[in-house]
Amino acid sequence: MGKALRPSGWLVLLYLLPGLAIYSFVVLVPILSAFRYSFFSWTGRPKKSYIGLDNYAEILRDEVFWHAFWNNVIMTAYGLIGQVGLAFVFALFLMSKAVRWKGFHRTISFFPSTMAPIIIAFLWTLIYNYNYGLFNEFLRIVGLERWVQSWLDLSGPIVLLVSIPLSWQNIGFYTLLMLAGLAAINKEVLEVAELDGATGFRKAWYVMIPLAKPTLIVSSLLCIANNMRGFEHIYAMTGGGPGNASSVMALYAYETSFLRFRYGYGSALAIMIMALTLLIILIGTALLQRRRGAEGVEH
Amino acid sequence: MGKRSAVLGLSTAAALLLSACSNETAPTNEAASGEGEAGGGGKISITLMHRYQASNIGKSPEDTAVLDGVERFKKDFPDVEIVEEQLQNEDYAIKAQALAAADDMPDVFIVPGSWMTNFVDNEIVLQLNEELDKRPEWRDGYRAGTLDAGTREGKVFGIPIAAGPTHLIYYNADLFADIGYDQFPATWDEVMDAGRKLADKGVNLFSYGDKSKGYAMSSWISALTDRHTGPEWTASILSGGGAAFTDPGFVNAISIMSDLSKAGYLNKDMNSVDGDTMVSYYFEGRSAAFVSGIWSAMNVVNNAPEAVREATKVAVFPGVEDGKGDPLASSGGAGVYYSVHAGIAPGPKLDAIMTLLEYMTGSQSAKLMAEVGGFPAYDPGEFDTTKLHPVARAAYEASAAADATKIFDLWFDASIVEVINTEIQGVMSGSKTPAQLAEAAQQAYETFLAKP
């Protein structure tokens, strides 16, 4: 842009002001006020009393919260495998020459991502339904009647069961990301690799994964962030039940504030969620970056 | 060029901010002018926010009766403007919470019993004793105990609407006759025996649906606990008088539920289906009975297949051995109240509000509610029962037969209620024991007692 046309610094700021104002109003201000409320015992009414760090001390002792945190961590692990991992495999298939109707597959696999989480949750509640569910019907047809279960009432594998719909919904999104990442790989590199005899699995492992690493990292971080703040699917499918078995941090914070009317403690939980999520993302980034650094030296 | 775009940017930003502001302030201005009563030529304006909806008229007795009261009031007092907002249950809870936090409640609003302590402590609701004393005939028309959950230390803060019991057993007499019971089993041993015999036929004794968390508490735990402990225990818990959730009575009550679940007499998906599915299992003949409040009576009348509807009878839980409670009692009492904003001063506006409350919940409204199958808090006296289906009449009579015991979810603090609501799912699914639930409830109770 020519110098004459370039707006001055303060003008740029001015242009940004409306967006910035809205952003701070809907994001920054609530976070800051949540931070302030987290030092109060507050039932959501005009009266509140300052209690210092008591809320945070209670969080440290709160087994339900840490159970919910652990569920988030497990969900994230399932997510990395079921969303990012599978999406990468899908993307490789869609890149390979063996697959026909690529556009069709791409569209269909992306379709669930366009639906609201509540709809997905409702769909899967029906699939898991004890009497009419597809899942149990399938088991009956293949003769595994003794496996027929009221799936969402099982406390044991409940986190896995609620993670499946999440993967089902998000796979398409990550597949698209991967496809974009893979498409950016220089075709000549791949051709050379093929000439050298690297096909199928070897080509993927030794050539494509290292070259698509930036995309993989971004996808993983997105996946971590999404799963750490997961809420809607669980809320609609199990409400955190049975008991607290499938509760996640965001759901617990919601219940604490809006059902138990402990807004102060709920705010402290929200701040804690943010801190923990940031921490996990920082650790994740550090690990991935270091690996990349180390490999960089190797090459 | 630069200047022009700067001006444009500024004015856009200003417009955005201004429109945001005007949106925010508009309702407040309106409310303010309303509170200023005579401000606009003597016209009184009352803001009313509740969870009764015109779309439910004819389906729900409460909505029908209350909204009929509003209409009658509008007709009789054309000078009084009513700014009404009808919300769905969940929406109402969210909106009311937000408005209460901002101290911006309308003039008249609904307060569930479980919120009352909180609203009273925070001085959001107006004490109505003097106003009620001016209208003794209306005041004394409410059934005994229905004002209680809206009363704190003798001061009335809420006017009750309906008082239906939350615990009734709707059972299919034909299915019970098939296994040799000509009425609902009279002891818990017989209940378990019936459960076994029904299970042999592939039918669940009860269908049960607690996905929304809260069903167990309002329809089962409140009544069952009272069978064991009697009302003294509840009173002691409420006053902090030494009773504990770990007391045997409460634990035994939970154990009965856990035994039913463990024996397999309930539907397997009890924690993942809601109340509607629970009732439809009963309609489909998958279960021989279900436990619910009086609100399900009209559901049976309107929606059950004819054979099921004709076979449906109403009972309550049997008593327990050495139980201290009344074996006829059901948990009940008024659940939700109309309250008035604390900022309203005595005067013509408050008079108008009290009259509106009488129209919505008093004698005429109560008669209408009873006639369409509800159980009003105001005693309707004699009313036309000819239009009532036998199931609805049986539910009404069972409701009127015994004193209501306290519904825990309305009386206990929300923090304790939530813990029990959550833990009971664990107990019913077999991952927690009744003792563990009691332990967790007690912990929440002690946290609650310790906080100012």
UniProtKB/TrEMBL annotation, chain A:
GO CC, any one term: plasma membrane
Stretches that traverse the bilayer: 12-35, 73-95, 107-127, 204-225, 234-254, 266-288
GO biological process terms on file: transmembrane transport
Domain ABC transmembrane type-1: 69-284
InterPro entries per the UniProt record, alphabetical: ABC_transporter_permease, MetI-like, MetI-like_sf
Subcellular locations according to the entry: Cell membrane
Keyword Transcription: no
PROSITE patterns in alphabetical order: ABC_TM1
Topology of the protein relative to the lipid bilayer: Multi-pass membrane protein
Keyword tags: Cell membrane, Membrane, Transmembrane, Transmembrane helix, Transport
PANTHER family: ABC TRANSPORTER PERMEASE PROTEIN, INNER MEMBRANE ABC TRANSPORTER PERMEASE PROTEIN YCJO
Family: Belongs to the binding-protein-dependent transport system permease family.
Name the UniProt record assigns to this protein: Raffinose/stachyose/melibiose transport system permease protein
UniProt source species: Paenibacillus methanolicus
TrEMBL record, chain B:
Lineage, top ranks: Bacteria, Bacillati, Bacillota, Bacilli, Bacillales
Keyword entries, A-Z: Signal
First and last residue of the signal peptide: 1-25
Taxonomy, superkingdom: Bacteria
Name the record gives this protein: Raffinose/stachyose/melibiose transport system substrate-binding protein
Organism encoding this protein: Paenibacillus methanolicus
Cross-referenced PROSITE patterns: PROKAR_LIPOPROTEIN
InterPro entries, per database record: Bact_solute-bd_prot1 (IPR050490), SBP (IPR006059)
